[in-house]
Design a protein that fits this description.
Layout (H helix, E strand, L loop, with lengths): L52 E7 L6 E3 L2 E3 H13 L3 E7 L1 H9 L5 E7 L2 H4 L2 E3 L4 E3 L1 E5 L15 E4 L5 H8 L4 E4 L2 H10 L4 E5 H10 L4 E4 L13 E8 L3 H16 L2 H8 L13
Parallel strand pairs: 1-4, 1-5, 9-10, 9-11
Antiparallel strand pairs: 2-3, 5-13, 6-13, 7-13, 8-11, 8-12
Helix pairs in contact: 1-7, 1-8
Length: 284
C-alpha cells in the first residue's frame, strides 16, 4: 500500500465474503472525530458508506500512519482528518492489515483505506484510486550494511509485506524461497533483528523512520533495477476507495488537490520526518 503494492485479489480479495479478521484486521478503532457545529462542507451531500460519517481503514505503517492512543496520526492520518473536516463528516477509523484494508475496500466495506498505497495500473482496475497525495521510493533495512543493489541480495533472504507492489518481482529475481511474506512491518523487523531474514524491503520513508527508532538497523536506498519495476519510477501515494464510488472519489480528489495547493500535505510530510517537496504528483 506506502507501500508499493499489488492488488491483493490473490490473497484476501478472493475471500470477499470473509470478515476483516480473516485477513488480519487488528480491530482497533480510532476515536471518532465529529464536525464542528455549523460546519459548511466543501462539497454538499457527499455520498459515503454511512450518512454523515467517513469510515476509514488504516494500515498502521509509520511515518505514513501512526497509532496515537485512541486516534491515528502520521502523514496520512493528518490528511484524512483534514478531508473529514472539509466535508463536515464524522471521522471513524479502524486499524487493519495491509492486505485486509485493500480487500475490504474492494468489497465496499468502508469509504477509504490509507497506509502508503502506491498507484499502479493493475490496482486501478479494481479499486478507486485518488489523486496523488505525495511520492515515495524503496529502501532496504538490515542489521548489516548492504549496497542497495539487487545483485547484493543474491543468496540472501529478504522480507516483504503482503500486498506490496514489488513482491512478485523480488520472488522472480531471488526465488520464492528467498522472499518471506509478512502481515505487518513489526513482525518483519523482529525477524530482521533476530537474523531470520537478512533485510526488509520497505518504502524509503518507513525504512528511514524505523532506522531512526533503532540504532541496530541500517537503511540504504534500493538502486533501480529493470527486474524490480517499482524501483525505476517515483511512486505516487494515493488513497483507495470502492471503484464504483465515483462521486466520493471525485470529492476526495478535489480535497487532496486543495490540501496539496495550500501546503497542508507538505506540512504533514515535514512534521513526520519526510521531505515536504514530495507533496503532490510526480512531474509529467
Amino acid at each position: 500500500m506506502k507501500l508499493g503494492r499489488t492488488v491483493v485479489a490473490a490473497t484476501c480479495g478472493m475471500l470477499a465474503a470473509a470478515a476483516l479478521t480473516s485477513c488480519g484486521s487488528s480491530g482497533e478503532d480510532g476515536e471518532n472525530t465529529s464536525p464542528a457545529a455549523g460546519c459548511t462542507p466543501a462539497h454538499p451531500d457527499v455520498q459515503t458508506l454511512r450518512k454523515g460519517e467517513l469510515n476509514v481503514l488504516v494500515y498502521v505503517t509509520p511515518p505514513y500512519t501512526v497509532k496515537e492512543g485512541s486516534t491515528f496520526g502520521g502523514v496520512e492520518g493528518q490528511i484524512v482528518e483534514q478531508i473529514a473536516k472539509l466535508e463536515c463528516l464524522q471521522l471513524k477509523e479502524k486499524a487493519v492489515s495491509a492486505a485486509a484494508g485493500l480487500a475490504s475496500i474492494e468489497a465496499g466495506r468502508a469509504d477509504i483505506v490509507v497506509g502508503g498505497i502506491y498507484f499502479t495500473e493493475d490496482r486501478a482496475k479494481v479499486l478507486g484510486l485518488s489523486a496523488p497525495m505525495y511520492r515515495d521510493g524503496m529502501a532496504l533495512l538490515s542489521k548489516d550494511g548492504l549496497d542497495g543493489t539487487l545483485d547484493g541480495l543474491a543468496g540472501k533472504t529478504v522480507g516483504v509485506i503482503q500486498g506490496y507492489l514489488w513482491n512478485e518481482d523480488f520472488q522472480k529475481a531471488l526465488g520464492s524461497d528467498k522472499v518471506k511474506l509478512y502481515q505487518d512491518s513489526a513482525s518483519l523487523l523482529t525477524d530482521v533483528k533476530n537474523g531470520r531474514v537478512d533485510a526488509a524491503v520497505l518504502t524509503s520513508a518507513e525504512a528511514g523512520y524505523r532506522a531512526a527508532q533503532d540504532s541496530s538497523l541500517e537503511v540504504v536506498a534500493f538502486q533501480p533495477s529493470p527486474q524490480i519495476a517499482a524501483s525505476a519510477s517515483q511512486n505516487e501515494v494515493v488513497m483507495a476507495m470502492p471503484k464504483e464510488k465515483t462521486a466520493l472519489i471525485a470529492v476526495v480528489d478535489d480535497d487532496i488537490k486543495t490540501l496539496v495547493g495550500d501546503g497542508t500535505v507538505a506540512s504533514a510530510l515535514e512534521a513526520n520526518g519526510m521531505d515536504p517537496s514530495l507533496a503532490g504528483p510526480a512531474a509529467p
